[in-house]
Specification:
single chain, alpha+beta, 2 domains, 12 helices, BtrH N-terminal domain-containing protein
Length: 329
């Protein structure tokens, strides 16, 4: 058995920030999960529907691995990424890092992992690996998936080799903290304003505040759009609240990030953004409950109510991001 020493195998709410926390704490940089999420400019919104999809998907964050790239750039971390089409080389890449005494991040498809109770294909799942033996790999996943877990080497290989939406070619990565990391206070403003600017000026109507407004119109049709409303609508609500989002489609995490920032920087714009995202988080939880109730009862009025709340949410988040975009002024 080969195990990295002194790993803080603390699982948190979201997979990518859980893995980032493991890698950074091993080098002495211990940041809260909301701070990791916010400094990585992780908040976003997307309404995703396509002909080959059984049901629409609501996403509340930037695309997989973009958060990691943003965080590394913002904190001056050395990010080394390895990808390959060879399963043998992929294993050698990972084993070499662990043999050298460091945990390593992996992007893979969670469907194949032994410990996942609900089998859902998601090629953008991220874990930290800190050990292996002849049969199993030892990983850190989210708290809801068990935190410190293990999966067979066979299942790990299948998860890493999977192809499809959001997958990567056996991606593994390491982070190295610089000798003199920048002060958090100096990194907050660019992280917040970059996130706000992207949210306020999305390239297509399915993203950002425009995407939330569009969802408010389309959600009213979901009973007709669903193949099985009693299954599809509650599952959509569950994904918003429980599937590694930290609740409220990542808005709880961003609210808490802004609260931490307000303790470090004295800014009225920051306090306004925090107040509005606290309001938005509660509204997203209300939307999820209405969507679930609509699926369970077949009552279209619940979706009309959800659409009205989403219209309010588009306005609230737009106002919040407008305030936050002025943080650097």
């Amino acid at each position: 058995m080969t195990m990295v020493k002194d790993v803080d195998a603390r699982g948190t709410q979201h997979c990518e920030t859980s893995a980032l926390g493991v890698l950074l704490r091993h080098q002495g940089m211990d940041l809260s999960e909301p701070m990791l999420f916010g400094l990585g400019s992780g908040l976003s919104f997307v309404y995703w529907d396509a002909k080959n999809m059984d049901f629409p998907f609501l996403g509340g964050r930037v695309k997989p691995f973009e958060l990691t790239e943003n965080l590394a750039a913002r904190l001056g971390l050395e990010l080394v990424v390895q990808e390959t089409g060879s399963p043998r080389r992929a294993w050698e890449n990972v084993a070499a890092v662990i043999d050298a005494g460091r945990p390593v991040g992996l992007q893979l498809d969670s469907y194949h992992l032994d410990y996942f109770g609900t089998k859902v294909r998601f090629g953008g799942h991220v874990v930290a690996m800190y050990g292996y033996d002849d049969h199993d790999a030892y990983l850190v996943d989210t708290d809801q998936q068990g935190g410190a877990v293990s999966t067979s080497l066979t299942s790990l290989a299948e998860a890493r080799a999977a192809r499809g939406p959001m997958t990567a070619r056996h991606r593994s990565f390491t982070l190295t903290v610089p000798g003199n990391p920048p002060a958090l206070q100096d990194r907050i403003v660019p992280a917040v304003t970059a996130c706000a600017d992207a949210f306020l000026d999305p390239p297509i109507a399915n993203l950002g505040h425009r995407g939330i407004e569009k969802t408010g119109k389309l959600v009213r049709t979901w009973l007709q759009r669903a193949g099985d409303p009693r299954r599809d609508l509650p599952q959509a609500a569950l994904l918003m609240e429980k599937a590694g989002t930290g609740g409220a489609l990542f808005r709880n995490l961003y609210r808490d990030f802004l609260a931490e920032c307000a303790e470090l920087l004295d800014s009225g714009h920051l306090r306004t953004g925090h107040r509005l995202y606290a309001e938005a988080a509660a509204l997203w939880t209300e939307v999820a409950a209405l969507i679930a109730k609509a699926g369970e009862s077949g009552d279209a009025q619940c979706l009309d109510q959800a659409g009205a709340v989403l219209r309010d949410l588009s306005r609230v988040e737009r106002e919040a991001m407008r305030a936050l975009s002025r943080l650097g002024e």
